[in-house]
Amino acid sequence: MSEPVLALERVEKVYNRDLPSEVQVLRGASLAIAPGEVVALVAPSGAGKSTLLHIAGLLDTADRGSVRIGGQEMTGASDRRRTMARRADIGFVYQFHHLLPEFSALENIVLPQLAAGVRARVAEARARDLLVSVGVGARADHRPSALSGGEQQRVAFCRALANGPRLLLADEPTGNLDPATSDTVFGALMGLVRETGLAALIATHNLELAARMDRILHLEDGRLA
């Protein structure tokens, strides 16, 4: 059996510890996601799914428990090591695309590759291939303001996958789109994920989309089931 791309074991997170406003968001949350597996994360608003994604993506730290990426223990890792792991192994997609408005769709996908040391010509070819794969190849030279919401989000998916991560983390990636566009964009995302074989954890309120994934995890009372 292959090593999980992402493994959380008994992760706990408390905000405002030892204060009257203390809130325990995660209470021993555990999960393991294998290469090629797409997992839905479903939870009510305020239940802690964004916190869990931030801990899984090494943007936040757990108070207790273990976080492993590709079998490598990241609990207690230095800021530099966490940054390197995020850059090499993890792609992020959010509800709002966060594309850089002054750059074209193509340039938004090229830039993270250049930051990772990829040659410009190689980065541009990779960006064009990704845009074509999600059906917006003809929009490569357009700035975000000239793209529809669905097109912008597909560009954001491409940017997240530009450096070939092993793990994709998405927080309500279609939550800002109408149902028809959401379905189209989600189909493009699943196509990319299946093609690349990476592991994905996707938070969503949309139960119909969740049902199209390999497995559904419910976050309830700080625990995953």
UniProtKB/TrEMBL annotation:
Gene3D superfamilies: P-loop containing nucleotide triphosphate hydrolases. One of its GO terms (biological process) is protein localization to outer membrane. CDD domains: ABC_MJ0796_LolCDE_FtsE. The keyword Lipoprotein applies. InterPro entries: AAA+_ATPase, ABC_transporter-like_ATP-bd, ABC_transporter-like_CS, ABC_transpr_LolD-like, MacB-like_ATP-bd, P-loop_NTPase. One of its GO terms (cellular component) is plasma membrane. PROSITE patterns: ABC_TRANSPORTER_1, ABC_TRANSPORTER_2. GO terms for molecular function: ATP binding; ATP hydrolysis activity; transmembrane transporter activity. Coiled coil: none annotated. Keywords: ATP-binding, Lipoprotein, Nucleotide-binding, Transport. Residues 9-225 form the ABC transporter domain. Belongs to the ABC transporter superfamily. This is Lipoprotein-releasing system ATP-binding protein. It comes from Rhodovulum adriaticum.
